[in-house]
Amino acid sequence: MDLSLLVWGDAGWSDEMLRGALMTLAVATAAYAFSILVGSLFAACKLSSWLILRLLADVYTTVVRGIPELLIIYLVFFGGGVLLRSVASGIFGFEGYIDPPLFVTGLVCIGVSAGAYNTEVIRGAVQAVPRGQIEAAKAIGMSTGQRFWRVLLPQTARYALPGLGNVWQLTLKETSLISVIGLVEIMRQAAVAAGSTKEPFTFYLVAAVLYLGLTSLSNQGFRRAEVWANRGVRYG
Amino acid sequence: MNWGLMSEALYQLRGGVPKTLMLVSVSLALGFVVAVGLAQMRLSKNRALSALASGYVYIFRSTPLLVQIFLIYYGSGQFRPFLQDIGLWVFFREPYFCAILALMLNTGAYTSEIIRGGIQSVPFGEVEAGRAIGMSRFQLFRRVVFPQAIRQALPAYGNEVILMVKSSSLASTITILEVTGIAKKIIAATFQPVEVFIIAGGIYLTINFNVTLLIRRAERRLNPQFYRDRSARAAAKTEKPADALVH
C-alpha cells in the first residue's frame, strides 16, 4: 500500500475521494427525500378505504422489495435513454446518442426502492397512533387538517423515526449501486483511482472507510433525534 | 410489447437461474456457520471475543455489499504475488469464489444478529434447568437453546434470505452471468429494457415467493402447536391428549 497516493491535491486522491463522498451524500439525501414522499403517498394508499388504492400499494411494495435494485437501475437508465432519444428525434429531430441524466436516474431508482420500505415504516407508525386520540380530537371539534397537524403527524413522526433511520442507512449504502451507470460517487471514484494507480485494495478500503464514516455519523444523528422526539415520553 | 424478445429473454434468463440459486444457497449455508460462530462470540463472557464479533458485525453492516465484493475481487489483485506464493491466488482469481466469500461474510454478519436475538429470547430458567440436570454446554446448546432460538429467529431469517436473493444480483458486477448479469447483457444489446425487466423481475419474484412459502412451511413444521389445521383440531377433539404433552 502506497500511502503517498492519498495526499491532498493533484498528486493524491484524497480530495477526489472526498468529492465522491459529497456526491454520495447529495444523491442519498435527494433520494431519501423522494422516498419519504413516495412512502407517505403509498402508506396513505395502504390505509385508504378504496380497494384499488390498497391493491396498487401492495403491488408496489411487493414488487419493489422482491426485485434487485440493480435491475431497477438498469430499467430506468436504459429505459430513460430510449425514451429521451425517441423524444429528441421525434420532436426536435435530433439524431444523436443521449444518456439520461445520471443524478436524476440514481435519485429515482434509489428513491423508488427505499420508498417501498418507507411505505411500511410510515404505515406502521400511523397505525401505532391510538384510535381513541383521533376520536377525541373529532369530539372536541378539530378539523381534518388540525387532526393531521396536531395529533397524527407529531406522533407518527416519533413512531417512525427508528424505522426511518434504518431506511436512511439502507439508502446510503444503496447509492453505491449507481456507480454501475457511471455517476461519480464514492465507488466510481474509487474504481477510477484504482484503475489509474493499480492499487484497488487501497482505494476500495478508503471507500469502505468513507461509507463507515457516513453511516456512523448519521446513526449518531438519528439517535439524537430519537432522544429529542421522545423527550416528553414517560416510561414505566 | 415485443413478444418475440420476451420469449427469447425468458429462454436466456432461465439459464441464469441455477447460478443465482447456487450463489444464494452456498453463501447462505456457509454464512449460517459464520453467523452461529459470531453469535456465540458475541454472547461470550470473554470481552475480547465479544468486542471482536461486534466490530465485525458493525463493519459489515455499515458498508455496502458492493464495496465488500470489490475489495475481495479487485482488491486481492493488489496482493497477487503474495497470494500466488501461498497458493491462494487460484481462489481469488475466480469471480465465483470471491462473490460467495463476500456474500457469505455479509450474510454472516446480519444473520448473527438474528440468531443472537433468538438465543437471548430463550428463558434463562430453562438454561439453568438444563445445567441443574447436568447437561454439558454442547448438550445445552444442541437440545435447549438452539431449537428455541431458531424458532424465534425464523421469520427474520426469511427476510434475510430474500435480501440475499436480491444481493446475489451484485455478482453480475464481477462478470458472473446470473439472472441480472444476463438481463443487463440483453438490455444493452437490444435496448428494450421493459420487456427484459418484466421477465427478469418475474423470475426474482417467483424465487422470492417460493422462499416465503418454504419459510412459512418451516415455521409450521417447527411450531405445530400454533398451526393445527382443521383436521388436526378435529382429531384433537376426539382424542385425549397424551399425558406427556400436558404441561
Category by helix and strand content of chain A? mainly alpha
Which stretches of chain B of 5+ consecutive residues score pLDDT under 50?
243-247
Question: Which chain pair shows the most residues in contact?
Answer: A-B, 40 and 41 residues
CATH topology of chain A: MetI-like fold
- For the report, how would you describe the main beta sheet of chain B? none
Q: How much strand of chain B?
A: under 5%
| Rg for CA atoms of chain A | 22 Å
Query: What radius of gyration of chain B results from the CA coordinates?
Result: 23 Å
Measured distance between first and last alpha carbons of chain A:
54 Å
Helix share bin of chain A: over 70%
Terminus-to-terminus distance of chain B: 62 Å
Could you name the CATH homologous superfamily of chain A?
MetI-like
Q: What portion of residues of chain A belong to β-strands?
A: under 5%
The CATH H-level homologous superfamily of the largest domain in chain B: MetI-like
